[in-house]
Amino acid sequence: MSSSLPLLTSLVTGFGLALPFGYLAERFLRTPALVGYILAGVSAGLIPGLPAVDESLLEQTAEIGVMLLMFGVGLHFSVRDLVSVKGVALPGAVAQMALATLLGTLFGHFVWGWNFGSAVLFGLTLSCASTVVVTKALEIRGLTYQMNGQVAVGWLVVQDLVTVFIMVCLPPFAQVVLGEGNVSGAAIVGDLAKTLAGVVLFVVLMMVAGKKALPWVLKLVAATGSRELFTLAVVLIAIGIAYGATAIFEVSYALGAFFAGMVMQESRYAHRGAKNSLPLQDAFAVLFFVSVGMMLDWRIFIDRPVDVLFVAALILLGTTSVSFGLVLLLRWPLDTALTLAACVAQIGEFSFILAAQGINLGLADKGLMSLVVAASIVTIAVNPVFFAMIPKVRNRLVLRFPWAKKAAVRQPPHQELPKDAGKDFRKGQIIVVGWNEGVRQVLEGLRAADRRIILVVPPSAPLNQLEAQGFGVISGDATDPMILVEAHVTSASVMLLALQDEIRMKRVFDVARELNNRLKIVVRLRNHSSIALFPADAQTVVVDEELVVSVALASNVVAASKGRVPDGTEDEDEAGEAALAARRLFEDEYRRAVARIREGSPTEKPVVPNTPEAEAALARIRADEAAREAKKAAQEGGGAPSPATGGLETASPKAEELVEVQEEGEGIELPKPDADGRGRPGLGGLKDLWGRWTKR
């Protein structure tokens, strides 16, 4: 029965081995789980009694994993990112591939005595790093959205483009080397021109037609309200464009999927698309690494261990040194050079593709494939060590070499304020951390109010456009204290945190408070389950989108029922009074909602992600709350303010104006949570709110 279901048995074996091996790698070997996935692929052919694995089917599912993973990378990588790093990625990647190929060719020809064709093919396999491995490595270390991560991704995109041309050149090269037929220079130039035309046409179609068509399609699908249809549309776009890029324009699957994601990144549905496709990305990426392990003939470690170590050394020492030197020559910072050197210290999928094509063309035998895969496994397994060594290597270089000191103090573009920025940007300014549609709207209001603003944004933001609009712009990760120092956080008046990741936002909050404990910080949250992550003090304003909408709806419905909301028939004074009453009701209710959530009633326990950072943050918050309760108990009878009557330290969205309009007396309690337990006022809650409003 199992033999008639090759896809099912392949998935059962692949996932069944990947889980325990991935767990062992993470838990005991302290390496990324992908090392365990590769070992799982190696063990698939060694453990007897397992369900049969169809290697060709598994390779196809692995190709889907590459497509989805690169599509996800493209969703977070815009055209502006490529433009911002073109000065280092374009010349650097081309030079690195040329030098790595030359190094491998010389080693294979003069050390091992291979013929010229085999030596060149061997050198080419050493020149291109695995995009999948680098993407995962950057994601694990939180470097994807930093400038160093953007340089690495841009570098690999250039490598992928160059590899496409290499694959076109290999057939005529093989004919020349093997003496098969007459190959003219005009034919080679024609093939290259055809490939270049295909790539350019594909990119133009994606940037022009795709930029309009893809968001339009997603908008139509999203209008149906079906989550399944939207996910299906996202997956179809990723896989369909990747296939079309290869079938029509002879562009690699990975590159086609990357451009599809990059075009969708400009759409308002990019975040939702990334979220919906993430589980599929993770599942199929696992199968890619399992398939890599299955390509290995494990006997090569016994028969040719020295050769495997030599190839690994060429990659780990030769390629990394070349890349490191090129980045420094292009006058980028030391950290960027070290990060990129760690990224290219391995080989992967394109090396296997080039080796397979060369073997089919007769340039080398199958032994080259086993050698390349073995070196790939060794370098991928060692790659986390290179990332872990970056701080130590940097410190040692800075202490010993003057050139390293100069390189260490360099800043990438947009990671510091322009030298001609006025003093207005260095005292009393507003710092805005994050970039999204909500931040764009906030900036319009702040600019209209003539406020001095420094933006700390990812490289994907329109940096030059924002600078032209008069904002101070710093591109980088705000969890890095030096980025906040560049924004002059010690002299700022207010900071707005509007990041997508609330745990990362908590880290920025802690760093900012350590640098300036008097700084007023406004935190934008998407749901109230994370309110407990942030302290309830006079310097912190928590604006929760979910809670704001809920309370605003309830307040305005009640105010409208009492005739307190202007409908166009009142005079100016009456309209102003009605609007003020509705606003006062909203802000009172918002304050009490935040208070109740912080207190944590039995029906509303704060839910936070189960991470060490979140647990540590909650521990500190609980300790602060315990101290405040003890102080309140000691002051009992001394007129201490009560949270229920406006003494709560957490401010409402417009706290300053609230102070001016707040009435004396008992406020209105927030209605009890409805059946879903999320604190939204239901029909019963609105009825209770109506009763209290009429008493008032």
Automatic annotation (TrEMBL):
Stretches the record annotates as Disordered: 623-696
Cation/H+ exchanger transmembrane domain segment(s): 18-388
Xref: InterPro entries: Cation/H_exchanger_TM, Na+/solute_symporter_sf, NAD(P)-bd_dom_sf, RCK_N
Biased composition (Basic and acidic residues): 623-634, 669-679
GO (cellular component) term, any one: membrane
Ranges where the RCK N-terminal domain occurs: 430-541
Localization of this protein: Membrane
PANTHER family (UniProt xref): CATION_PROTON ANTIPORTER YBAL-RELATED (PTHR42751:SF1), SODIUM/HYDROGEN EXCHANGER FAMILY/TRKA DOMAIN PROTEIN (PTHR42751)
Name of the featured protein: TrkA protein
